[in-house]
Amino acid sequence: MYLSLRAVIRQRQHPPEPPVVENTIPFIGAILAMIKHKTKFHATMRDKYRHPIYTLRVFGSTMYVINAASLIAAVQKQYRAISFLPFVVITVYRVAGGSKAINEIMTPDLTANDGFIAGFGKAIYHTLAPGIDLYAMSIEAMRTFRASLDALEAAGSTRVFLFAWVRSGALLVTTDAACGLHNPFRDPAIEKA
């Protein structure tokens, strides 16, 4: 059985792929090591094997782990072959509190040039490039943040739920800077959506 699993790993390895990191127990050895080392797993693997990039076979999937910062930009340019966009959608949905409706808008055509995610990046690229536009947005963001802190101070002793306050503040800071006086996210109903 052991030799069969080793053979499967070797057969699944294609020449252009990064080298495979061997596990004592094929396919599940990495899972056991992740459980043992927790957040230090990847640092342990990096220090043990010293590969700038490697392939990790885990039962049911293949992971490519990048240890060299110099390779990150090269990988990010291959967005059609290696896509991080599903993680963007998951992050917006879970962390930023996006609704199902927002998730459905963002999900189709993740790598298409006219898809929401790719189109959004193209739309804001010039605005966020160093220069007068970014400076103006930063000033507006600081004004919004200051107003939020002033309102909190004016309320006196009050109880706030930190995560909700920070999330709302971050949303208003960024959308005020982008939308100006007519920011639709100032409406609490739209913010909740």
Automatic annotation (TrEMBL):
Domain of life: Eukaryota
InterPro entries registered for this protein in UniProt: CYP450_monoxygenase_sec-met, Cyt_P450_sf
Transmembrane segments: 54-73
Keyword Transmembrane helix (UniProt): yes
Keywords, in A-Z order: Membrane, Transmembrane, Transmembrane helix
Keyword presence, Transmembrane helix: yes
GO molecular function, one term: oxidoreductase activity, acting on paired donors, with incorporation or reduction of molecular oxygen
The name this protein goes by in its record: Uncharacterized protein
Origin species: Bombardia bombarda
Lineage: Eukaryota, Fungi, Dikarya, Ascomycota, Pezizomycotina
